[in-house]
Each structure stands twice: as structure tokens, then as C-alpha cells.
């Protein structure tokens, strides 16, 4: 999977102009601004350290407009393995300096050159090998793989000490390098797909030009044995190709993950790239292309459909897995208000916005896109499984007999539901057993709502009301409250949370006796306490609300 687009992280409005200049140089990059200090950023964050560490762990290139020392101290606990780092740079707020910090093997110096050129300055590159030879020998271009990093470091060290080098094989990117070449040199850069024992005097670089085609589920060991018998290096394996009838195969997917190569699917009539095929062994056919293979040109990947929950609206309440899914998506579907909340999006990402009542149509459209091999996200607010799109997506799949739909990689990713977000703001009104209900009778009879509500009240459960009232349903909340009042006292605590997690949020605590339908609208979450729910004064003049975990006599 390709690396996410860069994140430009700023701490104040004084950095915004420089951040926007950098953003214009890097398609898809987004500007992240500190909440309360930056206005006009693409996204907001509340904690600088947590945000940087999360981006780093998601393999996102980081461009931090602040002192280099802050970035180093923030990421220091994560610096375990050189070679597995995304590019990390520090840029001066006034655009006077670009300092690559981490990711020498991930292209950080190339990224620094692009940014510095756009800002009209020289990058502060300090990597000895790049300064001397004009290239990073340990970071070959896309389509090639380095053999052994540790031996490679020793190799470059010997070159820097004055040794010359000879090049064996086709390495066109080195034509522009300033290498001390000598046909008789002890050191050699060897480029080829043949299996070769590592040696201190060789820098082994493997073109990824070997395809494996299978017609059944195979283990990683079977593929490795076939490569070994053919004398081909594991590092040259570019991808696994399988018939589309195996698209839903979990063992085959696990094999590709273990070998760290893409898995592509073709139908029976599809022609592969021009390759020289070798006799199949153990159900595995090996093909060698004349140049590095671009897997994206072969067949199609398994489509992916993720149904995500944005949480109540605040970016910091969106779970990391959801953010990562949005970053990898080709297509984003949902009610327009929620899709806009999920942005910003890259230019290559397609938004499909529909009316909030077109859930089944949206779900079917999502499967149609995913069946083409695309990565698709269906957006819900809150949690997708709570009165939201997860059920509609599963219903559409349940009704379908299309095998391509059932082969899609479907995942439901949770979010912070509105009831939980409101409860957290108030304290813990749902701290004991509770019932979550929608008061909308669009998809279920009102008689069912009345029966369930009456039984939930009889069971003395705390209550959370979704969809409490609307212009087309003006009377249901009043009837619901009449049912509740048959079982609860007028002093029962009630919490009203409107637009919690979004700009202009309001939170109000009152009693059941004080509550009227006019105090509530469609964007309000209504929490009604049980017989044990308590309130007490907060230092800011508001009230804490909680339902203790014990029931009956206090232990």
C-alpha cells in the first residue's frame, strides 16, 4: 500500500502562510492546526505530541513547522528501527530552513529538496553519502529492493573511506550519481533477481520483476520453495496473481501479507504483462519480467468496503483506525453533512454525497464500487452500528447473490456514539444498565416504540433517546415522556446534549418534571436517568450527573 499523503503540522497562525506554500508543492497534503490557536487549517488537533506520534505510527510523512528539537523529543520513544521510518522534517516558521530529521531510507532528503526548491532556499541535508555521491545508495527507487541494510551501511562507509566501486547489472538511476567507479574495484553494486549470498563487499539490489501465479490457496513456504528451486531471490517477488474466484480466500491473503507483496486477481481471459514463464512447481508458476513490475497494472486488487463512525464530530474523538481508513479510500459515500465532516480529501478521492434517506441505495452503490477493486468508505456519524449505516450495508449484502459483492473485504469500524459522547460531557449518567432507543417511527411502528419504552422504564433502565423529535414527527417525544413519567419521579435527572463534539455544542441538566418537547430538536440527545441516578454541583456552576454501579443498597 502506498504511503499516506504528508501532514503539515503547525502550532500557530504565524505558520499558516508557510504551511500553505508547502501544501501547494505536495498534492494531497493537509494542514493540521492546534485547536484554539490556529484558524483556517484543514484539520484540528488538541495534543501536539499525541498527533505526531500517531502520524508517525501510521507511516505518514510529517512536516512540522517548529523547532527540530521539539520533534525529536516527541518521537524519540518510537525510534526503534531505522529503515521503517516515514519522512520527518522540521521547517522554520518563516520558511528560512528545511531540516530533514528522519526517514533517510524513506525519501526524506528528496522531500526536503522539493520543499526547499519551492521555498527558494537550500535544504539542510547532512547525510554523508548523499552529499558525496548525490544519491542514497541504501534507498533504491521504486521497483527495486535493498538486500541487507546492515551490510549496506558498511558498504557505504567503505566508499566514504575512499574505496572505488563497480556496477554489475542494470542500474539506470545511478548514471547521474557521482560514484568513484572502477571496473577492477573490490566493491560491487550488484543488481539482479538471482538468489545471492550476502557479502560485505557487495551491495545487493533486487529488481522486483518476478510474478507468482497460483490457481489455488498456497502457503508462503510453497512460494519460497518455488523461488529457491528456480534460483530467484525472495526480494525480487513483485506480487502474487490469483484467479478472481479466490478473492475471498483468507489463507491466500495471509500468504501475501506474510511475504509483504500485493495480491492481484484476474479472470480467466485476462492477459498478464509480457513475462517469461517457467514450468509450474507445486501449483505455483513463476514469471520473470524484463523490468520491475508495476502490480497496479495487473488485474485488480480485492475491493474493500469500510463502514466507519466519525464520532460526534470533533476530530480528536475520531478513532485512529477511522482516520487511516479515510486516508486510504478511493471513494467516500454518505450523507453530505457527514462526508464534509470527514474531510478534507485529496484531489484523487471521489465523494458520493446523497440524501440522508437513501441508505439502501448508498449501500448498494458502495458494493458496486468495491467490487471493481476500489477502496470504499461509507460514512456515518457517531457509531455506524447505532441507528446508522452498518445495518443497511449488511442488509444489502444479505439480499445480494452477486459473488463479487460477497468477495469484498468488508469491515465495520466503530466510532463514539452520540449517547456516549453526551454522557461523557455530563459525567456518567449511563454508568449502569441502560437502554438506547430511537423515537423515529419511519422504519418501525409507533406501537413497538411505546411497548419497548414502557418495558425499559419498568426495568428501571437509564434511557438514551435518538431522533427524539422533528418537524414531521412533532408529537412522539411528548407521548414518550408521558410513558416515562408513569415510572419515574419528577426529580429524575435529564441531560440534553445538542451538537456535542461540534462547534456551538450545548449541554444542559434538568429534571424530568422540567422537561418539555419544546426544549428538544432533532440534533439533541436526550438522556433520562434511572431511579438511582444522582447529581451534584460542579465547581463551574453546572452539575455532574452519574448513575452508580451498585443497585439497591449501597455496598
UniProtKB/TrEMBL annotation:
User: What biological-process GO terms show up in the record?
Assistant: cobalamin biosynthetic process; methylation
> What residue stretches are annotated with the Tetrapyrrole methylase domain?
305-515
- What positions does the domain Cobalamin synthesis G N-terminal occupy? 51-129
Gene Ontology MF terms in the entry: methyltransferase activity
Alphabetized Pfam families for the sequence: CbiG_N, TP_methylase
Keywords of the record: Cobalamin biosynthesis, Methyltransferase, S-adenosyl-L-methionine, Transferase
Q: Which domain of life is it from?
A: Bacteria
Pathway it works in: Cofactor biosynthesis; adenosylcobalamin biosynthesis
Q: Does the keyword Nucleotide-binding apply?
A: no
Per its record, how is this protein called by name?
Answer: Precorrin-3B C(17)-methyltransferase
Amino acid at each position: 500500500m502506498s504511503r499516506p499523503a504528508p501532514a503539515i503540522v503547525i502550532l500557530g497562525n504565524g505558520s499558516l502562510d508557510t504551511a500553505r506554500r508547502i501544501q501547494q508543492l505536495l498534492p494531497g497534503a493537509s494542514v493540521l492546526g492546534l485547536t484554539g490557536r490556529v484558524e483556517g487549517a484543514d484539520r484540528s488537533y488538541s495534543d501536539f505530541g499525541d498527533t505526531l506520534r500517531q502520524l508517525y505510527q501510521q507511516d505518514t510523512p510529517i512536516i512540522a513547522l517548529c523547532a527540530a528539537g521539539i520533534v525529536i523529543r516527541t518521537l524519540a520513544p518510537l525510534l526503534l528501527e531505522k529503515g521503517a521510518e516515514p519522512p520527518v522534517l522540521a521547517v522554520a516558521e518563516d520558511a528560512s530552513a528545511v531540516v530533514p530529521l528522519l526517514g533517510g531510507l524513506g525519501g526524506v532528503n528528496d522531500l526536503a529538496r522539493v520543499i526547499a526548491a519551492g521555498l527558494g532556499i537550500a535544504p539542510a541535508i547532512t547525510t554523508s553519502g548523499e552529499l558525496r555521491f548525490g544519491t542514497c545508495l541504501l534507498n533504491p527507487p521504486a521497483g527495486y529492493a535493498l538486500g541487507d541494510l546492515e551490510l549496506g551501511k558498511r558498504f557505504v562507509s567503505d566508499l566514504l573511506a575512499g574505496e572505488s566501486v563497480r556496477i554489475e547489472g542494470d542500474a539506470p538511476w545511478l548514471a547521474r550519481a557521482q560514484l568513484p567507479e572502477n571496473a577492477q574495484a573490490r566493491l560491487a553494486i550488484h543488481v539482479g533477481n538471482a538468489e545471492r549470498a550476502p557479502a560485505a563487499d557487495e551491495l545487493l539490489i533486487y529488481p522486483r520483476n518476478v510474478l507468482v501465479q497460483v490457481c489455488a490457496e498456497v502457503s508462503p513456504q510453497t512460494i519460497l520453495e518455488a523461488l529457491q528451486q528456480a534460483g530467484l531471490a525472495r526480494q525480487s517477488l513483485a506480487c502474487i496473481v490469483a484467479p478472481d474466484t479466490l478473492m475471498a480466500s483468507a489463507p491466500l491473503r495471509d500468504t501475501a501479507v506474510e511475504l509483504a507483496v500485493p495480491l492481484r486477481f484476474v479472470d480467466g481471459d485476462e492477459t498478464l504483462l509480457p513475462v517469461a514463464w517457467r514450468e509450474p512447481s507445486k501449483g505455483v508458476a513463476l514469471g520473470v519480467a524484463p523490468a520491475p513490475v508495476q502490480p497496479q497494472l495487473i488485474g485488480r486488487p480485492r475491493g474493500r468496503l469500510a463502514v466507519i463512525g466519525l464520532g460526534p464530530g470533533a476530530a480528536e474523538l475520531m478513532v485512529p483506525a477511522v482516520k487511516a481508513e479515510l486516508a486510504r479510500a478511493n471513494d467516500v459515500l454518505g450523507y453530505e453533512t457527514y462526508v464534509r465532516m470527514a474531510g478534507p480529501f485529496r484531489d484523487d478521492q471521489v465523494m458520493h454525497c446523497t440524501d440522508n434517506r437513501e441508505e439502501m441505495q448508498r449501500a448498494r452503490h458502495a458494493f458496486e464500487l468495491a467490487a471493481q477493486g476500489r477502496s470504499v468508505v461509507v460514512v456515518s456519524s457517531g457509531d455506524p452500528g447505532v441507528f446508522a449505516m452498518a445495518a443497511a450495508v449488511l442488509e444489502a449484502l444479505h439480499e445480494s447473490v452477486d459473488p463479487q459483492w460477497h468477495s469484498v473485504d468488508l469491515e465495520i469500524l466503530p466510532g463514539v456514539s452520540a449517547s456516549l459522547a453526551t454522557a461523557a460531557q455530563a459525567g456518567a449518567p449511563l454508568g449502569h444498565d441502560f437502554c438506547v432507543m430511537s423515537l423515529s417511527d419511519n422504519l418501525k411502528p409507533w406501537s413497538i416504540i411505546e411497548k419497548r419504552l414502557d418495558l425499559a422504564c419498568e426495568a428501571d433502565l437509564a434511557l438514551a433517546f435518538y431522533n427524539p423529535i422533528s418537524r414531521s414527527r412533532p408529537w412522539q417525544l411528548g407521548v414518550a415522556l408521558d410513558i416515562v413519567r408513569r415510572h419515574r419521579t419528577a426529580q429524575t435527572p435529564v441531560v440534553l446534549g445538542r451538537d456535542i463534539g461540534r462547534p456551538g455544542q450545548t449541554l444542559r441538566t434538568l429534571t424530568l418534571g422540567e422537561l418539555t418537547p419544546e426544549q428538544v430538536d432533532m440534533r439533541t440527545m436526550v438522556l433520562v436517568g434511572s431511579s438511582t441516578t444522582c447529581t451534584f454541583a460542579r465547581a463551574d456552576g453546572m452539575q455532574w450527573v452519574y448513575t452508580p454501579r451498585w443497585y439497591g443498597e449501597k455496598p
